[in-house]
Amino acid sequence: MKNKETELNNKRGFTLIEMLLAIAILVVLSGAILISISAQRDKARVTRTLSEMSAIIQPIEMCLADGGTVAGPSEGGDICNLSSRYGQWPVAIDGFSAYWMTGSWTGNNWFFNRQQTSSGTYVCCAATWLGCKIGTVANCSS
């Protein structure tokens, strides 16, 4: 009988403290992974917006060279008043503001941007750079 009692005492499982500690470690690790995934998703949205806005530069330049007028930025609207063959303004990706622009759409005096509302990151394009870049309010306006 003593042998069976000793045998049962030696076959002990995990204690409640050990189980709670293991669960706590898993929760902390999963939280860190979710934060990392969220940050990567935001970076991907910024990159996609930069790509879409950079693709607009050539149609804007072609429209102006052909004597057309660039229509102000509008979600899904035509870029040029001459024809829809110049393309359309991309629709905003989730988490980005609508287009904001300054200047006239003639020659080298145009500028437009979008802001990612969660991080405050700007994607801005200007005639003076003849391109687009990622930045803040300060370096987008110069």
Please describe what this structure looks like.
By secondary structure, the chain is α+β, with helices and mostly antiparallel strands. The protein has a domain at 47-140. It has helices at 2-10, 16-65, 137-140, and strands at residues 100-102, 111-115, 122-126, 131-135. The chain is rod-shaped. It starts with a helix and ends with a helix. The model has no long low-confidence stretch (mean pLDDT 81).
What layout of secondary structure does this protein have?
Elements: H1 2-10, H2 16-65, E1 100-102, E2 111-115, E3 122-126, E4 131-135, H3 137-140
Antiparallel strand pairs: 1-2, 2-3, 3-4
Give a brief rundown of this model.
The chain is of the alpha+beta class and 142 residues long.
Question: Number of helix segments?
Answer: 3
Order of helices and strands: HHEEEEH
Summing up helix and strand content along with how strands pair, one would put the structural category as alpha+beta
Overall shape: it is: rod-shaped
Largest sheet: 4 strands, antiparallel
The count of strands amounts to: 4
How large a portion of the residues is in β-strands, by DSSP E? 5-15%
N- to C-terminal separation? 88 Å
The unreliable regions are none
Based on CA atoms alone, the radius of gyration comes out at 28 Å
